[in-house]
Specification:
Length: 506
């Protein structure tokens, strides 16, 4: 849990796919008026322009009256599974008890009329909970609930097969939305929630088959949990934990405090594509202690200004990245749609730093310094085996640690205009590096072993990229800052087929 904070030809870019949501071409981030030098991109502007629900009750639906407090919960309880409920226009309330949430039955559908709002009034903790599968929530605003830290308001218990579509989930504490297996979140507004827009976590095992498409994910982590619990690793527009198979497509992820998207601990098989990720305080994307992903055709701009500047002001030399791959890599032994981490066809424009590949020498099973305490890699079933003397020999030497390996960074466009970002140093870097040594004394990863491995032995490659601006490159450890020629030449031999124009990308 948490992270260690310390082409030759331009690829033709593809506009974001229309994914069943309203969109506005080239809409800028609301928090900045900085000009863009990149092609216009459509964004999922669903918070400002939500799709309207049905003005009349669907055939066979149970009508819910906003004038009767608790009407929705009562009618849910008295109706059979697979019932459709139509919420009339107005503000719907639950009973004035913090645990007065709705407990759907299998296959229930909750459909809001135009103007239908379910309001927790800062009294109720949860809106929808329980274990029922295949529940649908559509055209409904859910707001004002006060879920505790690390808990969620909608699908509180991470039930499977839910569909959240054309919904607005906003101004709640905790996570606006939790996720179960096979969950579909489409064309919805996840806005201004206290911790996460969505927390994809299921304590009983891997969460499989998650789709997040065409949503606007904006302004979350209003309670600023990383400041309240430093290093908690518990924030983001969306946070993914142990998700096996996720498609994250066509979303507008912007203005979140902290990271936009964060996959943390034993995630696998992600497709992150055709998103606009911009103006988040921290990284656009963190992929941490996880496996096998395709990250492609995203527009990534003006991210990491707040956190990047904070670290620079502390005289921290670590290249805190906008796309941060931390102890994550391609692993052919784990089934996925790719056996690498492929990062290609993206535009990264005027962010604080670019892509950093990092491997913390302490991130191995049973390490007392591993911040993912209690977890082990997906390659080791019995974590007790990751101890001396066995951990010093194959296969455990490799399998007991999360490795940044088989990362292929190709055909991307990196643009940096320092006058737009407002910096003179430490915002202009790519990196592949590790820290020195580790402990305890029985650790087999002492000295520079991990730094040498990530830099030269684990098949991490930049190639066929376009750089515009005064880019620098960090290799092996934070002290080795290279120019483009050094980066391309022996011993690093990175960015074959790439070009660099060192002038600011204005």
């Amino acid at each position: 849990m948490g992270i260690k904070r310390r082409h030759s030809a331009l690829l033709a870019l593809v506009l974001l796919a229309a994914t069943g949501c309203d969109s506005t071409p080239g809409a800028p981030a609301e928090s900045t008026g900085a000009p863009s030098t990149s092609p216009a991109r459509s964004v999922a502007r669903v918070c400002a322009h939500p799709a309207a629900g049905p003005a009349k009750a669907p055939a066979g639906a149970v009508t819910v009256d906003p004038k009767v407090a608790g009407d929705l919960a009562a009618k849910t309880k008295s109706s059979p599974p697979n019932t459709t409920f139509w919420l009339r226009p107005g503000k719907h309330r639950l009973a004035p008890d913090r645990f007065a949430q709705i407990t759907p039955k299998k296959g229930n559908r909750y459909v809001g009329a135009p103007g239908a709002v379910l309001d927790g009034r800062k009294t109720n903790q949860y809106a929808f909970g329980g274990a029922a599968r295949d529940v649908t929530i559509r055209h409904l605003t859910v707001q004002g609930f006060v879920a505790p830290h690390n808990e969620g308001v909608v699908n509180h218990d991470s039930a499977d097969g839910w569909v959240i579509e054309h919904a607005t989930i906003q101004k709640n504490s905790g996570a606006g939305l939790m996720a179960g297996a096979r969950q579909r979140v489409r064309a919805s507004c996840l806005r201004g929630n206290g911790q996460y827009g969505m927390n994809a976590y299921k304590g009983t095992g891997p969460l499989r088959g998650l789709v997040v498409t065409g949503n606007e994910i904006v302004g979350n982590n209003t309670d600023d949990w990383e400041r309240r619990r430093e290093g908690c690793g518990c924030t983001g527009g969306v946070k993914f934990w142990a998700v096996d198979g996720a498609d994250v497509r066509g979303n507008w992820v912007h203005g979140n405090r902290g990271a936009g998207l964060w996959a943390d601990t034993n995630n696998n098989d992600f497709r992150i594509e055709n998103n606009v990720i911009e103006a988040n305080d921290g990284a656009a994307l963190i992929y941490e202690t996880s496996y096998n992903a395709v990250i492609r055709k995203n527009m990534i701009r003006r991210n990491n200004w707040v956190e990047g500047r904070r670290y620079a002001d502390r005289d921290d030399s670590f290249p805190l990245a906008t796309v941060y791959v931390s102890e994550s890599g391609g692993e052919p032994r784990i089934r996925a749609r790719t056996d690498k981490i492929e990062i290609y066809g993206n535009v990264l424009e005027n962010n604080w730093n670019g892509i950093t590949l990092w491997e913390n020498a302490d991130r191995f099973c049973n390490s007392p310094a591993n911040t993912s305490s209690g977890d082990c890699t997906l390659l080791v079933r019995d974590s007790d085996r990751c101890a001396r003397p066995a951990i010093a020999s194959a296969p455990l030497y490799a399998d007991c640690r999360w490795k940044t390996q088989r990362v292929d960074i190709r055909a991307n466009r990196f643009v940096l205009d320092t006058s737009v970002v407002g910096c003179t140093v430490k915002c202009d870097r790519m990196g592949v590096l590790a820290n020195y040594g580790t402990y305890p004394d029985w650790s087999p990863y002492q000295g520079e072993r991990v730094a040498e491995a990530i830099t030269r032995k684990q098949h991490n490659r930049w190639r066929d990229n376009v750089y515009i601006g005064p880019w620098k490159f960090v290799a092996h450890d934070p002290s080795r800052v290279l120019d483009f020629v050094q980066w391309q030449n022996t011993p690093y031999q990175q960015d074959t087929g790439s070009t660099l124009d060192p002038r600011d990308g204005g």
